[in-house]
Inverse folding.
């Protein structure tokens, strides 16, 4: 069974703001071990397509949104963002 | 199962953190599966959410036909206009990455708004666990409770 190893988030945390800067506000696909970003973009469906093109199965990455450094997450308020658009 | 909060580093000192820069968020990888595939996504453990909600694009990627789902308006606290949510069954899996993997079936919601991160709320997720949020350690411990009827590996 494919699963996300314990080190996934520890490895992600090692990425500096400089390394992540080009991904702020984007959807990304992290490798299962969290050591690299396989694909990145504004549209998650396109990111998934890029994952497939990279030869990986859909459950061999972790899809994630990369917040801006000073972005404050308010949980369900994300739903209200959609209402405002 | 114990999960570690995801640390995010702010650029400027945060007032609510006493000028600190690191925000710890109870985010964990959750796998959602349907007839067409599986995806791992970062999900936010959200005790304030009545339901477990995924962005609509996920439904298409796992082969779930949203036209078959029950449709309901979701009213957001403090906001006037409700949003549409479609509900269908999916398989949810979580793991601590070393010892414990847990899987269950749940009815979850899919919304068309650009939800940045699935909300792992009460129905379909937290109802099946006794959860301890350990703020000082930046960890959450999830223990399946008597409501849980899924599988453990």
């Amino acid at each position: 069974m494919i699963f996300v190893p314990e080190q996934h988030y520890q490895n992600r945390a090692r990425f500096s703001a400089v390394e992540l800067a080009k991904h702020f506000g984007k959807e990304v696909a992290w490798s299962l071990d969290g050591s690299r970003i396989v694909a990145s973009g504004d549209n998650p469906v396109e990111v998934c397509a890029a994952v497939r093109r990279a030869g990986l199965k859909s459950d061999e990455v972790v899809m994630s949104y990369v917040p801006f450094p000073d972005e404050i997450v308010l949980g369900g308020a994300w739903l209200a963002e959609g209402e405002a658009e | 199962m114990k999960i570690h909060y995801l640390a995010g580093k702010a650029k400027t000192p945060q007032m609510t953190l006493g000028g600190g820069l690191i925000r710890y968020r109870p985010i964990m990888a959750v796998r959602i599966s349907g007839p067409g595939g599986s995806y791992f996504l970062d999900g936010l453990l959200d005790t304030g959410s009545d339901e477990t909600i995924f962005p609509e694009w996920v439904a298409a990627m796992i082969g779930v036909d949203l036209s078959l789902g029950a449709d309901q308006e979701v009213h957001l606290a403090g906001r006037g206009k409700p949003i549409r949510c479609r509900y269908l069954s999916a398989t949810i899996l979580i793991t601590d990455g070393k010892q414990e993997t847990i899987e269950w079936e749940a009815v979850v919601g899919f919304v068309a708004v650009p939800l940045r991160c699935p909300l792992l709320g009460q129905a379909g997720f937290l109802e099946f666990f006794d959860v301890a949020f350990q703020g000082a350690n930046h960890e959450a411990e999830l223990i399946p409770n008597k409501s849980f009827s899924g599988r453990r590996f």
In short: Chain A touches chain B through 37 residues (CB under 8 Å). Chain A has a mean pLDDT of 88.
